[in-house]
Predict the 3D structure of the following.
Amino acid sequence: MAQTLPVTNNLLALDLAGLKTLAVRLGEPPYRGQQLFEWVYGKGCRHFEAMTNLPVAFRARLEAHFSIRRLAPAKIQTSSDGTVKVLLTLGSGRLVEAVLIPEVTAGRFTACVSSQVGCAMGCTFCATGRMGFMQNLVPGEIYDQAAILSALAKERFDHGLTNIVFMGMGEPLLNYRQVMASVAMLTHPKGMAMAPRRITVSTVGLARRIRRLADEAAGVRLAVSLHAPTQDKRSQIMPSSTAEATDLGALMDSLHHYCRTTGKRLTFEYCLFREFNDHEDDARTLVRLCRRVRSKVNLIMYNAVPGVTLQRTTEARLNAFARVLAHAGVTVTVRRSRGQDIDAACGQLATLDKLSQH
Ligand code: SF4
C-alpha cells in the first residue's frame, strides 16, 4: 500500500534506486521504477499518460504528485568552429549552460555538462566563479544536458556523443552524490549506455572527495585543474586551494591514492597566463609534480573574461612550455579552446543576465 512520498516532486531528482523506492511507496513492485526510468531517460518521455506499460492507477498517482521538469533550451548558439552552446532553463527557473564540442575528423563528439549553477570555488580567472554558488543540479538535470546535446549531435552531425566531461559550470565534487547518480544513469544500459571511461570528472582538487571518487567510481576518468605548479601561485588564482584539505600537498597525496586504486592515468589541466605561470621554470616545477603520479598534461590557452587582469599567453611561450614538458618525458597536449566567439570556452560559462546580453 502507498506510503509517505518523497519530499521532492520533481522526478528528475530521483535516480534509478529512487524511482524503484517511489514505485514501492506508491504500492507497486520495484520493477515499475525501472520501467519509469526507461520512459524518462531511455525514451525521453515527458508525460506520464504516454507511459503505456504502466498501470493506469500508478500513472494517475504519479500525475497527481510529480512532474517531469525537463530542461528547456532557452537559447542555442553556434560558434564559427562548430561548437554549440545551449542555455537551458532548470525547473527552478535558473539558467545553466552545456556545450557540444564536435571534432568531426576525429569522430569525437563531446558534451561538456554543468553540475551546479555558479560555483563557490571563486577561481579568479573564471566567469562561473564570479557568479558565486547558486544551486546544485539534480541527477536528471545533468543527464538531460547530455541527452539534449546528444540529440543536437545526431541532428547536426549524424553522430551520437562519444564523450562526456564535467567541465561546465560548477565544481562536480561539491555536488558529489548527484553527480555520481547522474554518472550511473548515463552509463546504465537503459539510459545513455555510455562507457564510464568516456566520462571525465574535472575538479579543482578537493582531496578528500578525490579519494572517495577513487574508492567508489573507479571507472570514470579524472582531470585536475592545476593551473599553477606551486602552492603560492595556486593560492593567488584559486583561493579554495589554501584550505588544508585542498592544498597542493593534500591534493598530490589524494592523486597518488587515485592512481594506485584505479590504475588509471589522470590529466592535469593547466591554463597558461602570460608572465604568471608560463615560465620555463614553472614547466620544470610541473614536471616534478607529474613524476609523482601517473599523469598527462593538457595545456590550455586562456580565454579573456571581462574584468580579469590575467592575460592569455603567447604561442611562442606556450610552445616553449610544452617543449620543456615533452623533453622531460611528460605526455602533453595543447588544447586550443573551442567556441570562444560564443563564450563557450573554458572558464567562460556564466549565466547571469545571459538572456539579455546576447
Ligand atoms: S574554474 Fe571551475 S572550480 Fe574554479 S570557479 Fe570556475 S567552475 Fe568553479
In short: The radius of gyration is 21 Å. The chain has a mean pLDDT of 91. The longest strand covers residues 95-103. The chain is about 35% helix and 20% strand.
